[in-house]
Write a structure and sequence with these properties.
Elements lengths: L6 H4 L16 H9 L1 H11 L10 E7 L6 H19 L8 E8 L5 H6 L7 E6 L12 E7 L32 H25 E13 L10 H18 L5 H5 L10 H11 L2 E12 L7 H20 L4 H14 L1 H6 L1 E11 L5
Parallel strand pairs: 1-2, 1-4, 2-3, 4-5
Antiparallel strand pairs: 5-7, 6-7
């Protein structure tokens, strides 16, 4: 079967360590990893049954969507310390397994920067390129899967939103915020298909009783995209592109054919999709509501954070020559929209799933 290359697979976060790199512009994601440490420790202490895990001589952990660090190293170390403590608390210090950590991201991720900055460690490390919407590991080989702030990326832009003959054609916008219902429904349907593919692949890879920890930006149940901080941020970015189209800096048809493959989920959606899949139990889902966090740190900082994540996909579609003007405009528009951003709703979802032992 031919595997189609998608936008999300082709354009990872900015590599290197330059001013617009993910390394220099991922402090918001870092705060999420830091805030989840205690939750991960508790989850492993209470939910991981080390006595009945298969493949006990080697404990395998993967971080899906690892990007280029340093957040991935911190998250992995938090997990290893919690597992080590679990073995000791069970009187199994002498049986603590060797840890094997896989860092996984898109094929075009900057693995050179990632491994050049790999810290001193007490685990074996390997890189695994590929889309996490497909199988990446052998059957029943993983004990803990971790993914933070990656599952908002869809495997592809919904095909309907770029079809001029579809009711969901998203003319003049780059996201489903402030778009017709058909556009939002196309994004929601794509997210549902992708989530099922993700869960189906992980169900095959994770050992029975293994855990999956997911951190993802979300919105409270029932929040319209126009009131969600991520939606506001993407709408403002799209309006900058339209302003440039009106000035003739970019082709308006180019804007019409450009959409971000990003979807912000809700706790209700996650619960329904996990239940439908049936291979995992939701052991914990904690939502920390943050009001107006999109404006924290100032307009320039927010603009640079968005650029670190979106520059690749924008450059591929429009070319690199528009980037500086686009993000200069974006910084100014963010500064003029602080009250709107402060009213926006967003939350950080901590999701703990356990692989069921009697199904799938």
């Amino acid at each position: 079967m031919e595997v189609l290359k998608t936008q999300a697979e082709s354009f990872p976060m900015n590599g290197g360590d330059g001013v617009y790199s993910y390394v220099k512009n991922s402090s918001l994601q870092r705060s999420g990893v830091d805030s989840s440490k205690a939750l991960i420790e508790k989850a492993i202490a209470e939910k991981l049954d080390v006595h009945n895990l298969p493949n006990s001589n080697s404990f395998r952990i993967v971080d899906l969507g690892c990007s280029v660090g340093p957040n991935t190293f911190i998250a992995v170390q938090n997990i290893i310390e919690a597992v080590d403590l679990k073995y000791k608390s069970q009187g199994l210090s002498s049986e603590t397994p060797e840890f094997h950590v896989f860092f996984s991201d898109h094929t075009f991720n900057d693995f050179n920067t990632l491994f050049a900055s790999l810290p001193e460690r007490k685990y074996f490390a390997a890189g695994v390129p590929g889309s996490f919407y497909t199988r990446l590991f052998p059957q029943g080989s993983l004990h803990i899967v971790h993914s933070s702030f990656a599952l908002q990326w869809l495997s592809r832009v919904p095909k309907e939103v770029v079809d001029i003959n579809s009711p969901a054609w998203n003319k003049g916008r780059i996201h489903y915020t402030n778009a017709p219902n058909e556009v939002a429904e196309a994004y929601s349907a794509q997210y549902a298909m992708d989530t099922e593919a993700f869960l189906r692949a992980r169900a095959q890879e994770i050992v029975c009783g293994g855990l999956m920890v997911i951190l993802v930006a979300g919105v409270p149940n029932g929040t319209p995209p126009s009131q969600a901080t991520p939606g506001i941020l993407f709408h403002l970015l799209g309006s900058c592109l339209m302003d440039m189209a009106k000035r003739g800096t970019v082709d308006e048809a180019k804007v019409d054919s450009f959409n971000l493959p990003v979807y912000t989920t809700s706790p209700q959606e996650v619960e329904a999709l996990v239940e439908k899949n049936g291979c995992f139990s939701i052991e914990k889902m904690e939502a920390v509501v943050r009001q107006g966090s999109g404006g924290q740190g100032g307009a320039n900082r927010t603009s640079t954070h968005i650029r670190a994540g979106m520059e690749g996909i924008i450059k591929e579609h429009f070319g690199s020559e528009i980037l500086d003007e686009l993000f200069d405009r974006y910084s100014k528009k963010l500064a003029d929209s602080q009250s709107l951003l402060e009213s926006g709703k967003t939350l950080q979802l901590f999701i703990l799933l356990k692989r069921n032992t009697n199904v799938c």
